[in-house]
Amino acid sequence: MKAQSWNNDWQFRDDASGESQQVTLPHDAKLMLARTTVSGHSAAQQAYYPGGQFTYQHEFMAPASWQDQHVVVKFEGVYKNASVYLNDQLIGSHRYGYTQFVVSLDRALNYGETNTLRVAVDDSEQPDSRWYTGAGIYRPVWLMVGPASGYIRPDGVRVQTVAAATKEIRFTTSIHGEADEVRVTVLDGETVLATATGTDATLTLPTAQLWAPAHPQCYRCVVQTYQAGAVVDTATTTFGIRQISWGAEGFKLNGESVLLRGGCLHHSQGLLGAATFAESEYRRIKLLKEAGFNAVRSAHNPLSRAALEACDRLGMLVLDELWDMWFIPKNPHDYAKDWRDHYQDDIRQMVNKDYNHPAVIMYSIGNEVGEPATPEGFPLVKQLVAAVHRQDATRPVTAGLNLMILQMQHKGKSVFNQSTDQQSDSAMGSAAFNAMANVIGPVMNQSANSKKADRLITPIADELDIAGYNYGRGRYSRDAKLHPQRVIFGSETFPSDLWKNWQLVEQYPQLIGDFMWTAWDYLGEVGLGAWGYSDQPHFSVSAYPGLTSGSGVFDITGHAGAELGFARAVWHLATKPYIGVRPLNHSGEKLYKTAWRGTNAEPSWSWAGCAGAKATVEVYSEAAKIELRLNGQLVGTKRPHHDLARFTVAYQPGTLTATAYAATGQATGETTLTSAAPQLGVTLLPEHTQLRVGDIAYVPITVADDAGTVEMNHDVEVTGKVTNGELLALGSAKPDVEQPFITGSCTTYYGRALAIVRASAPGSLTLTVASALGETSTTITVQ
Predict the structure, then answer these.
(1) Which pLDDT value is given to residue 430?
(2) Angle, to 10 degrees, between the axis of helix 562-570 and the axis of helix 278-291?
(3) pTM over 0.90
(4) Span 243-259, average pLDDT
(5) d(CA 572, CA 588)
(6) Alpha carbon separation from 178 to 185, 228, 489 (Å, rounded)
(7) C-alpha distances out from residue 642 to 262, 566, 646, Å
């Protein structure tokens, strides 16, 4: 079917206020609402954004030629409880906010006339999710038109690598009705590599290259159906040639062992809320790949198509996860009440979306669900694995198992509410469990290492192709000894545990990798990973106006802190030492740490006004010895412990240099941080200088000197204005702000902010930013 983007000219209305405006999709309705501390909402879990009911309306002309065709609309994601009306007639609905769905327009179209498509969204029942969900039509929409018979169903072309060694590929096509002929063409760019006919065709592509993270080669498949010698329908998909295997010898891609350097990702896009743009997903995956990650786990819902496409192009492996709950609620109004009725369709929709993406290597049927430890829930593990395998037998199925949650559920002490009664004595609640886990994190790791835990987990893990352990490092060695054929991985881990975890990953072949929480910070679950100080003890940082979790290697603007330096050292990717400095504007204050952040150090030696303050300097390196010098004077020499050498020195502006030495005494690498000059200005650093109409671009904003050195301790309010375009968002990574990202103003945080703009017409898009440091502009060419 011919697909066209259907994202322009929608009318949006907040049903509570009655206010309406024209919007371009994707669109996050929740960002339009005023944040609240009123009880009955999801509070800190949803970053204090309330729920609501919203209506999207789109008017369009249905040409008379459609009368003999099949017309559908594909929604990639609507959060949540969507009801779709055409000319006031209900034509479809969808409950789950994270899976795609298709609605046929045929039975309610007025041909040759203007038609009205209306989408009602209901996110009003709260508390709902454990993190910020966004609301509304937050992913793209597609209009698809094809013949009444002989059309290729949406996602109807599947490509499977039969044998990577011989480049043997199978192409299957699902057609509605009859076709005289089906032709399959495989292309590399515009070069035809091979052709075949039939709905089930096998081809060998001897000159093709295999897809792998180091060289993610993708190809294009075009399938056409014919009737009476004429083309009736055309479908195009991309694919990569690759084969995966797993077993006691580890995880292999095209026969080569791969260790998963992973991170967990929530779906929210920082300043854009949940609105999912291809450019945003590509940027995030690109930054993660360049940082050294080779795998991401969607947490805890299916990734967007745009994210999968980015992973295919950039060579990022994907563990795509279906749900955060089954039938036991984790919040009173989450998806659990609808799960039983829709889980089969959820599986189909995710697999249909994922099947042709070479980046996808594994499916997860749930995160930290307690049901497998109950008589009713245990049989579901086998049933769900089988249901996934019926849709896709080529990929393994896993789940993120939390031993503490399973043990509590087994005893009838659910961590989460099992009913809408928020006062249930059997449930402690998600936030309370996080607070407890923050205190007893190491105990949670070790609680997995017991005979009782082994008896509980073994029947569950044995039903999975690969067992994922959340905070279960204590199982790694035990499993290697007692269950050597069981393939396992750390599906969710504390970042500070990475060194210990990775030692075991490298020791045991069947332990295939580690996914830290998290690779990228996110909205909601406020304060989970935030480090507080004397006036802000931990978990008071979750109070309003807290906004972000604070637990990412990258913050919500895409800036990475010192946890990245630690990870690269542990993964053996660093060629020189990494210097991180604990925030000097809090020097001398009592520090409150959390388990979900290993360090809050920043790669900067520019802290105006902090001369003489005690600085904690962290140097990350695999070297045998680290030497630290301040303005040429020796501060000290230390041997790193678990790839970290920590120094204390009185701050003075200038240069801070770390030199790494091998055991032989030979210098192996050096890094220098420099203080900014006193004269500062606001600098705009557009990541793209050319756009097409409708594209978006990211423009980092820094408070810096003429050399580009960012000053961490001179934050200013900035206000943005765009000509020939739209300022979609302006904000910073500051974790506790009241000003929404859509107002056009914000205060920088540690010298940084971010603007996101959209091109509206050919010519030049200009972003102008004003502050107390002056006014500056940047121009982007729009084609």
Answers:
(1) 63
(2) 50
(3) yes
(4) 98
(5) 34
(6) 20, 11, 46
(7) 19, 9, 11
**661-695 b/e with 16+ CB inside 10 Å = b?**
beeeeeebbebebbbbeeebebbbebebeebeeeb
Domains, in order of start, for the chain? 2-147 (2.60.120.260), 151-239 (2.60.40.10), 244-525 (3.20.20.80), 567-672 (2.60.40.10), 681-782 (2.60.40.10)
Closest CA to 317 of 250, 278, 362, 354: 362
Task: Return d(Cα 783, Cα 777) in angstroms, integer.
Answer: 20
| CA–CA gap between residue 305 and residue 278 (Å, rounded) | 9
- Distances 257 to 244, 316, 408, 629, 632 between C-alpha atoms, Å: 10, 15, 36, 41, 45
Burial class of residue 519 in the structure, from the number of CB atoms within 10 Å of its CB (0-12 exposed, 13-18 middle, 19+ buried): buried
Report the mean per-residue pLDDT for the chain. 95
Confidence at 422, pLDDT banded by 50, 70, 90: very low
**769: which 2 tokens?**
């930013």
Question: Within 10 Å of residue 535's Cβ, how many Cβ atoms?
Answer: 9
CA distances, 725 to each of 751, 757, 780 (Å): 26, 7, 10
- Residue 431 pLDDT class (50, 70, 90 cuts): low
With residue 380 as reference, give the H or E element that holds it.
helix 378-391
The strand pair at 614-620 and 488-493 is best described as unpaired
Average pLDDT value for residue range 202-211: 98
- Structure tokens given for 283: 């940027």
Report the C-alpha gap between 395 and 384 in whole angstroms: 14
Phi, psi values for residue 623, rounded to 5° = -65, 160
Q: Are the C-beta atoms of residues 595 and 496 closer than 8 Å to each other? A: yes
Contact (CB, 8 A) for 182 and 175: yes
For residues 243 and 161, what is the distance between their CA atoms, to the nearest angstrom? Answer: 6
Which candidate, 81, 100, 79, 80, places its Cα nearest to that of 352?
Answer: 100
pLDDT in tens, 211-245: 999 999 999 999 999 999 999 999 999 999 999 99
pLDDT range class, residue 635, cuts 50, 70, 90: very high
CA distance 464 to 277: 34
Cα 605–Cα 606–Cα 608 angle in degrees, nearest 5: 140
Three-class DSSP category at 244: strand
pLDDT per position as a tens digit, 561-582: 999 999 999 999 999 999 999 9
What is the pLDDT, as a whole number, of residue 427? Answer: 45
Read off the DSSP letter of residue 532. B
Rounded to whole angstroms, the Cα distance separating 383 from 378 reads: 9
Cis omega (within 30 of 0) for bond into 410: no
The residue count for the chain: 783
Alpha-carbon gap, residue 128 to 335, rounded angstroms:
8
Backbone dihedral region of 573: left (phi > 0), alpha (psi from -120 to 50 degrees) or beta? alpha
pLDDT digits (tens, 9 = 90+) for 577-610: 999 999 999 999 999 999 999 999 999 999 999 9
- Decide if pLDDT at 179 tops 70: yes
H helix or E strand, kind and range, residue 252: strand 250-253
CB 291 within 8 A of CB 267: no
Residues 442 and 449: their CA atoms lie apart, in Å, by 12
Residues 714/680, Cβ–Cβ less than 8 Å: yes
226: three-class secondary structure by DSSP: strand
Q: Which residue has the tokens 């020195």?
A: 649
The type of residue at 167 is K
pLDDT tens readout for residues 647-704: 999 999 999 999 999 999 999 999 999 999 999 999 999 999 999 999 999 999 999 9
Report the candidate in 783, 757, 742, 734 with the shortest Cα–Cα distance to residue 687.
757
- Cα(461)–Cα(25) distance, rounded to whole angstroms? 41
